[in-house]
């Protein structure tokens, strides 16, 4: 079937950012534009085929082939990829039983596995790190600790344990952290962790880094137990602290080994702890990193003085404060600032607070304001926006603001400098947000706006079926004219990118879209308004009906023929005529519907347009006549002169230029199968001649595509039959020979291709 092919866009050349001006951006472009590593490719294949490659135990879990063995680095990576892809379950985790996999660094973030599966799969390994952040409540912290402590090697050697946002049952037994004597790093952010638990943890002999943010700790005095070894303390949003400011500062003052301290807070709580800390002169003598984001009454002067007294400092967090705006923070060598004063600070904030939704919202809001008129490609920042969206999928504020930032960072020509893989990730995250928040219209608008970007719509991989469903649903909402135009434009392009099978699956969306598009055409025609929306609508209908009998049927059922006759009677521009005729070609190719076109009005207009001076208009009109006249049955019961039309068709083709001529409208075909009945119709040389002319036209324009199509669809034999037949139209025989000659030329190096 014929469809409208949008003019190709200019070639994509990604310019790598300057290393001095945007080192992060340069790294992101190089990383995202590079092919995936062979290891990752192999692991992805293994995971995708795990069910086929593994045998099944009697309990229904999977077991690796006996001869398989994975070294530690590969086993760790294998588990990480499974976790990332959401493939780790009780059934699949069992492949880590036994000794075929040797794990050290275990990452099971956000997975759903049972306690029994966890213990059997992981607790016999010699683990030195475990990240069990936000695992499903089926695996609570007490069970994790019990499993780990069942292995004496782990008790002595586990160095890092991350349990952020992991559950503790209300009636659970005490947490036995004390048995993990080798533990150096512990994070219990957003966990029901009490002061008595802190007292136990503080006695761990090797503890150096502790995160007790957003816990139920009310008293931090127990930290004095580990004051001589604690190097990093994070206590963001300590909402349950009952100590006074002087008491808290007294404890912090004793932690002289601290290199990092985070006492950031939610802005709404208006905490002044950081303000008081900055006034202290005899505190944190060795600190390299201080995070006081969200604090009140913080000034540039106070922060600057604090840093000058500690010249080795490398990081300060100032987001959601009144500080960070003086020249000092821009000129201090080696100092990273997470704030909101400029793009550099915002970028640092997005990186630093990727797991904290309160600060992620703030940073994204600042980024949106900063990039509203962005004219420079910033791939590193777009990557950070994607990380924020991925880490907070159910936070509407994060998703909405991130979608707006993504628009700013990819608007107009900026997307051309972005790696395709990064754009694909962002686009997929946008559609994930749509599914999570299906009723939030502004988020939907942002997603729709992103799809108007030609770079994204044409070059970037994403789920086009889901996109088509979304855009078609939006199309029927009767939004403002600008949004309607965008939805129509996107529909016209997405229609080309869906397979016929996918288009058929759209069902209700397809029916509603065809109906709405015809309503637009009728309205514009009545108003005699051939604006951009009208032209896009004609393209969309043309492309939707390509290789889609269902769409063609919907068109007929919604009085599309009468509307399109009205279009032809209202507008005489060839660009409009060719789109109307292109769609009618698609209907003419559907055998069950083609008879609907054999009416006095349709035939009258097609006969007139057959003689158009514009070759593409005449071409499409001829195609309709060829398909309609190839079947005698519909003409028997009407007075229309089929033989006159056939003769007219033949005469017109004789007067056309060479098949290799250029047309204003770019035409392409998904398949040649609709031509095959015409090629075999030796009793009607006029029909045969049009089919050959059309095939030679596209073959001469894109031989690599259409010569292959001739082989794949077994169309070569039909051309050979025409070439070898003794009684055949000379011009038809000549064109068939030309197609075959070009085919031989194109495949001259392929001796084994089927040929006559």
Features:
756 residues; mainly alpha; ten-stranded parallel sheet; two-stranded antiparallel ribbon; 38 helices
Q: How is this structure best summarized?
A:
With 756 residues, the chain is mainly α. 52% of the residues lie in helices and 5% in strands.
Shape: elongated
What's the mean pLDDT score? 91
Separation, N- and C-terminal Cα atoms: 26 Å
Number of helices: 38
Specify Rg, calculated over alpha carbons. Answer: 34 Å
Outline the low-pLDDT stretches: 4-16
Largest sheet: 10 strands, parallel
Q: How much strand content do the residues show?
A: 5-15%
Write down how many β-strands occur, each being a DSSP E stretch of 2 or more residues.
14
Physical arrangement of strands within the biggest beta sheet:
4-5-6-7-8-9-10-11-12-13
The helix-and-strand class reads: mainly alpha
Account of the 3D structure:
By secondary structure, the protein is mainly alpha-helical. Helix content is 52%, strand content 5%. It contains 38 helices and 14 strands. The strands form 3 sheets. It has a 10-stranded parallel beta sheet. A two-stranded antiparallel ribbon has the order 1-14. Helix 2 (38-48) packs across helix 4 (72-84). The longest helix has 19 residues, at 508-526. It is elongated, with a radius of gyration of 34 Å. The two termini are 26 Å apart. The model is unreliable at 4-16 (pLDDT under 50).
């Amino acid at each position: 079937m014929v469809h409208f092919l949008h003019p190709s866009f200019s070639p994509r050349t990604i310019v790598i950012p300057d290393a001095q001006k945007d080192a992060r951006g340069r790294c992101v472009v190089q990383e995202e534009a590079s092919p995936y590593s062979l290891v990752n490719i192999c692991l992805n294949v293994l995971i995708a085929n795990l069910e086929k490659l593994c045998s099944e135990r009697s309990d229904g879990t999977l077991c690796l082939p006996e001869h398989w063995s994975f070294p530690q680095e590969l086993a760790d990576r294998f588990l990480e990829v499974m976790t990332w892809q959401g493939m780790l379950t009780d059934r699949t985790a069992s492949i880590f039983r036994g000794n075929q996999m040797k794990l050290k660094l275990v990452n099971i973030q956000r997975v759903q596995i049972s306690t029994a599966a966890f213990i059997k799969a992981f607790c016999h390994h010699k683990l030195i790190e475990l990240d069990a952040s936000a695992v499903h409540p089926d695996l609570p912290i007490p069970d994790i600790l019990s499993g780990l402590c069942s292995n004496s090697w782990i008790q002595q050697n586990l160095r890092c344990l991350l349990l952020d946002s992991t559950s503790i049952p209300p009636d659970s037994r005490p947490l036995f952290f004390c048995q993990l004597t080798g533990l150096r790093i512990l994070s219990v952010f957003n966990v029901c962790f009490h002061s008595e638990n802190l007292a136990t943890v503080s006695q761990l002999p090797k503890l150096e880094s502790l995160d007790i943010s957003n816990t139920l700790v009310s008293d931090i005095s127990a930290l004095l137990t580990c004051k001589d070894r604690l190097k990093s303390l994070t206590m963001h949003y300590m909402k349950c602290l009952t100590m006074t400011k002087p008491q808290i500062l007294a404890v912090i003052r004793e932690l002289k080994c601290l290199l990092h301290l985070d006492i950031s807070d939610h802005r709404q709580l208006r905490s002044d702890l950081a303000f008081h800390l900055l006034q202290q002169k005899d505190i944190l003598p060795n600190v390299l990193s201080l995070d006081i984001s969200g604090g009140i009454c913080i000034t540039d002067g106070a922060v600057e003085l604090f840093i000058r007294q500690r010249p080795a400092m490398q990081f300060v967090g100032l987001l959601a404060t009144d500080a960070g705006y003086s020249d000092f923070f821009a000129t201090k060598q080696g100092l990273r600032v997470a704030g909101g004063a400029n793009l550099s600070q915002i970028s640092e904030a997005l990186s630093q607070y990727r797991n904290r939704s309160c600060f992620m919202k703030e940073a994204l809001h600042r980024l949106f304001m900063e990039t509203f008129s962005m004219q420079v490609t910033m791939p590193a920042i777009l990557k950070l926006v994607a990380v924020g969206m991925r880490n907070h999928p159910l936070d509407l504020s994060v998703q909405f603001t991130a979608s707006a930032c993504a628009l700013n960072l990819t608007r107009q020509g900026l997307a051309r400098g972005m790696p395709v893989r990064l754009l694909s990730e962002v686009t997929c995250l946008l559609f994930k947000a749509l599914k999570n928040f299906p009723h939030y219209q502004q988020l939907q608008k942002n997603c729709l706006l992103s799809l108007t970007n030609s770079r994204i719509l044409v070059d970037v991989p994403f789920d086009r079926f889901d996109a088509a469903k979304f855009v078609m649903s939006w199309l029927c909402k009767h939004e403002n004219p600008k949004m309607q135009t965008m939805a129509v434009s996107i529909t016209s392009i997405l229609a080309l990118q869906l397979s016929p099978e996918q288009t058929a699956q759209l069902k209700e969306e397809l029916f509603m879209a065809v109906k709405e598009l015809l309503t637009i055409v009728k309205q514009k025609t009545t108003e005699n308004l051939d604006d951009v929306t009208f032209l896009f609508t004609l393209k969309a209908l043309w492309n939707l009906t390509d290789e889609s009998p269902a769409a063609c049927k919907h068109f007929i059922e919604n009085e599309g023929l009468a509307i399109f006759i009205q279009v032809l009677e209202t507008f005489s521009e060839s660009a409009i005529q060719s789109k109307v005729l292109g769609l009618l070609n698609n209907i003419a190719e559907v055998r069950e519907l083609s008879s609907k076109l054999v009416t006095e009005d349709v035939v009258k207009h097609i006969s007139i347009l057959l003689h158009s001076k514009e070759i593409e208009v005449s071409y499409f009109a001829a195609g309709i006549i060829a398909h309609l006249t190839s079947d005698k049955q519909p003409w028997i019961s009407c007075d229309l002169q089929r033989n006159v039309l056939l003769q007219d068709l033949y005469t017109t083709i004789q007067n056309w230029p060479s098949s290799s001529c250029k047309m204003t409208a770019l035409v392409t075909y998904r398949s040649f199968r609709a031509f095959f009945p015409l090629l075999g119709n030796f009793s009607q040389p006029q029909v045969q001649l049009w089919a050959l002319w059309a095939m030679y036209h596209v073959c001469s324009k894109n031989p690599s595509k259409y010569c292959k199509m001739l082989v794949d669809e077994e169309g070569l034999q039909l051309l050979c039959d025409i070439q070898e037949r003794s009684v055949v139209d000379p011009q038809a025989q000549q064109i068939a020979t030309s197609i075959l000659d070009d085919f031989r030329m194109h495949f001259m190096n392929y001796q084994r291709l089927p040929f006559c």
